[in-house]
Amino acid sequence: MMEKLNPFYKAMTILITGILLSFNYSVILNMSLFVISMVLIFGFSDAKKSTVAKILIPVGIAAMSLFMAGFLHSGTVQTPKAGTFTSYNFSAMTSAATSLYNALQLSTRVLSFAGLGLLFAVTTKGEDFIFSLMQQAHMKPKFAYGILAAFHLMPNIAKELDDAKLAYRVRGVRLSAWSLKPFFAVLVNCICWSENLAMAMESKGFDGDDDRTCYQIIKKGPVDVVFAIVTIGYVLSGMIFFQF
């Protein structure tokens, strides 16, 4: 279901939601958005559950780290004075409650942004998103196809880097882990590939300034509008009614 949504409208909805969340400090809203994102990913998408689980591991570590940092360092430590144990206990409880609330704000904030990012990343194909930008956002074809070319060349770049490192090892040249020598060879090959690709596209009649027809039409429908209205409306309502 989530894969059928228009990528451009989905991206704009999540972007606006993220901007609204940057002005929000509600723990309930942050946590509810993370839970909703996980429900949509695991229940209404074809994303690989193992891949999502692996991504959530560093997210959980980051959230826990911020929780501990906020809980341990956001409170004010006070030294008790003689005869003031009652007031000190009350002050310590207040400080602990404030620290816990700040820690929850920080940790759930990470979870909410991570959930929204995962919702878009694992339910959207890169090519469909670029085609959607061309058709709905009217991105110029030369920029769109340039991004697609770089995207599809990434596996070749990684292989070329491995070949360059292997060539140095065959010649008996030892390189440190931070050596930039293999990257220069890869950079030269990337420039050659880009020139060859540009000439190939021009030889096929490609002109980045003219309007072009698309073999793959990315459709938009009422479901995309409903998804945007419900998501943004829920965040706005949560900012008003969720005070904790």
Keywords summarizing the entry:
single chain, 244 residues, mainly alpha, 2 domains, transmembrane
Main sheet attributes: strand count, strand direction, barrel closure = none
How many domain regions? 2
| Proportion of residues in β-strands | under 5%
Distance between the termini: 32 Å
CA radius of gyration is 25 Å
The count of DSSP E runs of length 2 or more, i.e. the number of strands, is 0
Structural class: mainly alpha
| Range of helix content | over 70%
Mean pLDDT: 85
Q: How would you explain this protein's 3D organization?
A:
The mean pLDDT is 85. Helix 1 packs parallel to helix 8. It is flat, with a radius of gyration of 25 Å. It has helices spanning 7-21, 27-43, 49-73, 85-121, 126-135, 141-170, 181-203, 222-241. By secondary structure, it is an all-alpha fold.
Summarize the structure.
It is found in: Membrane. This protein is mostly helical and 244 residues long.
Write the layout of secondary structure elements.
Layout (H helix, E strand, L loop, with lengths): L6 H15 L5 H17 L5 H25 L11 H37 L4 H10 L5 H30 L10 H23 L18 H20 L3
